[in-house]
């Protein structure tokens, strides 16, 4: 997401817009009244500083989330050695479909979630720390586990997308690509977390909208009630009187 869009997104809130309007009116009123010095513009300056700090925190948070997603994408394989038309060819990993037979060896990034079907060496070891956090490589085998609730570490016959082969060679059949992989589900969960508001945030947004409407209603009521005072000589004119009571 472009930086400027992230910044603008932080101000897409009704309460924030009201605060910006209040700061602008306060600034204009100070200018119209000919006020000078730091104290004349203290109120709008404080509002703008608070809004800027809030926007900075929001941008940093969203930037970190996007960086985490980019790091996950970096683990995706670019190519795969896949069986097509009776021979193995190197093709873009994005062209893999469930049922393809893929050959992996030392240094290969696993291009999809796959079930091992043939061992081409005496052993196959895979570094799957990115998925499970295991500090050491794990041995893979052809035998599957019978446990219904098996975790990733127990699935010794499954090669997971994004993991790296550190020893041996084997062939496996693709069982999941894209979002239908272990890494894909993690990425989708991160995207959902980023896009979906938490229950607390939803409640705060609802309260903020309600409060903003109440404040706006009170401001309009006060402004309308005092229309007769706009021409008060102490304000220096009808327009300045209108702005004064709008600020109030």
UniProtKB/TrEMBL annotation:
Transmembrane segments annotated in the record for this chain: 14-32, 38-60, 210-230
Stretches assigned to the P-type ATPase A domain:
76-190
Domain Cation-transporting P-type ATPase N-terminal per the UniProt entry, residue ranges: 1-26
| Keyword terms, alphabetized | Membrane, Transmembrane, Transmembrane helix
| Domain of life of the native organism | Eukaryota
Tagged with keyword Transmembrane helix: yes
Coiled-coil spans in chain? none
Keyword Zinc-finger set for record? no
Q: Name one Pfam family in it.
A: Cation_ATPase_N
InterPro entries, from UniProt?
ATPase_P-typ_cation-transptr_N, ATPase_P-typ_TM_dom_sf, ATPase_P-typ_transduc_dom_A_sf, ATPase_P-type_domA
List, alphabetically, the PANTHER family matched.
Answer: CALCIUM-TRANSPORTING ATPASE
Please give the name of this protein.
Answer: Uncharacterized protein
- Organism, as annotated: Aegilops tauschii subsp. strangulata (Goatgrass)
| Phylogenetic lineage | Eukaryota, Viridiplantae, Streptophyta, Embryophyta, Tracheophyta
């Amino acid at each position: 997401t472009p930086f400027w869009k992230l910044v603008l997104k932080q101000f897409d809130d009704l309460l924030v817009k009201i605060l910006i309007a209040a700061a602008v009116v306060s600034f204009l009123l100070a200018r119209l009244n000919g006020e000078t010095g730091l104290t004349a513009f203290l109120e709008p300056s404080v509002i703008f500083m608070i809004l800027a700090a809030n926007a900075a925190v929001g941008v940093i948070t969203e930037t970190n989330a996007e960086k985490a997603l980019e790091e996950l994408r970096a683990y995706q394989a670019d190519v795969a050695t896949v069986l097509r038309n009776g021979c193995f060819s190197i093709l873009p990993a994005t062209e893999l479909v469930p049922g393809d037979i893929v050959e992996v060896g030392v240094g290969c990034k696993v291009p999809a979630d796959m079930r091992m079907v043939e061992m081409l060496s005496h052993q196959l070891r895979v570094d799957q720390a990115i998925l499970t956090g295991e500090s050491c490589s794990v041995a893979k085998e052809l035998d599957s586990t019978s446990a219904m609730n098996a975790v990733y570490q127990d699935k010794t016959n499954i090669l997971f997308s994004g993991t790296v082969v550190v020893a041996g060679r084997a062939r496996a059949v693709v069982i999941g690509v894209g979002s239908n992989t272990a890494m894909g589900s993690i990425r989708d969960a991160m995207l959902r977390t980023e896009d979906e508001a938490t229950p607390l945030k939803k409640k705060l947004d609802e309260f903020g909208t309600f409060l903003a409407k109440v404040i706006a209603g009170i401001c309009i009521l006060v402004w309308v009630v005092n229309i007769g005072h706009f021409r008060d000589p102490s304000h220096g004119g009808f327009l300045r009187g209108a702005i004064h009571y709008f600020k109030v």
